[in-house]
Specification:
Elements: E1 8-12, H1 21-31, E2 36-39, H2 49-58, E3 64-67, E4 70-71, H3 77-91, E5 95-100, H4 105-111, H5 118-136, E6 141-144, E7 149-153, E8 165-169, H6 172-181, E9 184-187, H7 207-221, E10 229-234, E11 236-239, H8 243-253, H9 264-269, E12 273-276, H10 278-292, E13 294-300, H11 304-314
Helix pairs in contact: 1-2, 2-3, 3-5, 5-6, 6-7
Length: 317
């Protein structure tokens, strides 16, 4: 069944005050019309994602929960599949299963884990995706790969409908794997390094880079492209009546990079940036859906109040 490409919106969070504050925040996110509350999966200052997902979904009625995304190297796929199936069972089917190959070297260093070469991590994740999908189908699983072996296991609880698999990625190999395997693809800038959040790959966040990524996905997915939901995190949202001057100021603050369009026009065209009045931003989202089929937008939790009018206007349209 082809995806309907209707807009939906998520919130990306990591921390909360203790006690009931986390559940209260989840309920507010739900009341504002957001579809999903996502956690991160790192060892720095954030909540443990599985426990936080469980608390949020048990305290709400319609809100989906997920992790954007689970680092495959931190959890065996059979263990992760069981945890996700359990939350899905308890919530009546409100889980989105986000998977990634891992990228943040300091996490591995702090945990004393081997930080294998990217190709190894990606191959391991590709096998894990196959394992998780098989287990969430509810059928007996026998799987022998280079990295995992599952013998005669039937997952319990078995979801009545397998929850969607989201793969977040930016490089060509990961995007092609996602095109073959994912229900939701999260478009990220491919990273320059594995060191820190601040080390952004600006050339890979441009409109031209996004054209290339959508091309890779379309070519690899073939007929199943119509069933894939395309998502993106937008960390920069500025509501203003002077979008051109605001974009010029941002462009002027960026480091020079001859490989990318970092002019004001380039800033405004990046799918990871939204600048303008509410009307202009809504029009921009419509244009980007027409160009790239992007319909699932995720915002950081410090942008909730800023984007609430956009969510109210566009969610479900």
């Amino acid at each position: 069944m082809a995806h309907n490409r209707r807009f939906r919106f998520g919130v990306h969070s990591s921390d909360a005050a203790p006690g009931s504050a986390w559940v209260g925040a989840a309920r507010r996110i739900e009341s504002l019309g957001f579809s999903t509350l996502f956690l991160r999966d790192h060892f720095d200052t954030q909540l443990g994602p599985i426990a936080a997902m469980t608390a949020a979904v048990c305290g709400t009625e319609k809100l989906n929960v997920g992790c954007l995304v689970f680092d495959n190297d931190y959890r065996h796929p059979l263990v992760l599949a069981k945890e996700m199936a359990t939350i899905d069972h308890l919530s009546g089917g409100r889980v989105e299963v986000g998977l990634g190959a891992g990228w943040m070297a300091p996490d591995y260093e702090q945990a004393g884990m081997a930080f294998d070469a990217p190709g190894v991590r990606v191959s391991r994740m590709e096998e894990a995706v196959a394992v998780v999908k098989s287990l969430l189908s509810g059928k007996p699983v026998d799987f022998i790969g280079e990295h995992y072996a599952i013998t005669g296991h039937t997952a319990y609880p078995a979801p009545s409908t397998p929850p969607p698999i989201m793969i977040a990625c930016g490089g060509p190999r990961m995007l092609r794997i996602a095109a073959r395997q994912a229900d939701i693809i999260g478009l990220n800038p491919a990273r320059k390094s594995n060191a820190a959040w601040e080390d952004q790959n600006l050339p890979d966040a441009t409109a031209d880079a996004t054209d290339r990524k959508i091309g890779w996905i379309r070519n690899e997915a073939g007929a199943r492209y119509a069933d894939i939901e395309l998502s993106i995190v937008v960390p920069f949202v500025i509501v203003t009546d002077d979008r051109e001057d605001t974009a010029s100021a941002i462009a002027g603050s960026l480091p020079p990079d001859t490989a990318a369009d970092l002019t004001a026009e380039g800033v405004l065209a990046s799918p990871h940036v939204l600048i303008g009045s509410i009307d202009e931003i809504c029009a921009t989202l419509d244009e980007r859906r027409d160009r790239w089929d992007l319909s699932y937008y995720v915002f950081n939790d410090d942008s909730i109040d800023t984007v609430a009018p956009i969510v109210e206007r566009l969610a479900g349209n």
